[in-house]
Write a structure and sequence with these properties.
binds adenosine monophosphate; Rossmann fold; three-stranded antiparallel β-sheet; five-stranded parallel β-sheet; 9 helices
């Protein structure tokens, strides 16, 4: 099963994905996490991607499509995977359709004002990648692994608005694209992580 999580930066895709993957048998494939790991390890891909990511721009389609093609062909994706942050452009959506059969697209809907608030309070663990918000976890250490919590470079205010603009221009049209294919399920993403997950659980249970 291939599920796609669609939503603006800060809509809560990462938090929801972590919950879904631990409850359903899905592998979490986050293109943002993969790029950040490549950047930390200074791989050829990481070096090419850094200037785009740091500026809040999209990494070129060809690089991303190849990265995802390789990743979803790995054995740990056999049972199914949850794509978080991919596709983000029409070209990526077309490429995904040619590589794999998409079963469902969950669109996490959140208003722009709320996105900015959420992103500005987001903290990410430098050790395990867990995501927190200062409104419900105010410490600077990860309760899961003890590593430091940081503000992502591209979560800084000057980059956030650019990312939302990039989303509106390139990714929002995919909502219509998947709606036309009959694959889209819209979820109100404005609630707490528990409320959002409960809504998604309802959708998932209706499917099986
Ligand atoms: P995310 O963690 O999903 O918010 O992604 C962080 C950044 O990684 C984005 O702002 C882009 O620069 C880059 N990125 C992640 N996924 C993609 C994608 N599918 N296409 C292009 N760039 C991406």
């Amino acid at each position: 099963m291939i599920l796609v999580l669609l939503g603006a930066p800060g809509a809560g895709k990462g938090t929801l994905a972590a919950e879904m993957c631990s409850s359903f048998k899905l592998k979490h494939i986050s293109t943002g996490d993969m790029l950040r790991q490549n950047m930390r390890e200074e791989t050829a891909l990481g070096i090419k991607a850094r200037s785009f990511v740091d500026a809040g721009k999209l990494v070129p389609d060809a690089l991303i499509i190849e990265m995802v093609r390789e990743r979803i062909s790995m054995p740990d994706c056999k049972e199914g995977c949850l794509l978080d942050g991919f596709p983000r452009t029409a070209a990526q959506a077309e490429a995904l359709g040619a590589i794999a059969h998409v079963d469902m697209v969950l669109y996490l809907e959140v208003e722009t004002d709320a996105l900015v608030k959420r992103i500005s309070g987001r903290r990410v663990c430098e050790g395990c990648g867990a995501v927190y918000h200062i409104s419900w976890h105010d410490g600077d250490v990860c309760p899961k692994c003890g590593a430091k919590l940081l503000v992502r470079d591209d979560d800084k205010p000057e980059t956030v608005l650019r990312r939302i603009e990039v989303y509106n221009q390139n990714t929002e049209p995919l909502i219509g694209y998947y709606r036309e294919k009959g694959l889209l399920r819209t979820v109100d993403g404005s609630g707490t992580p528990e409320e959002v997950f409960a809504a998604v659980r309802g959708i998932m249970e209706k499917r099986v």
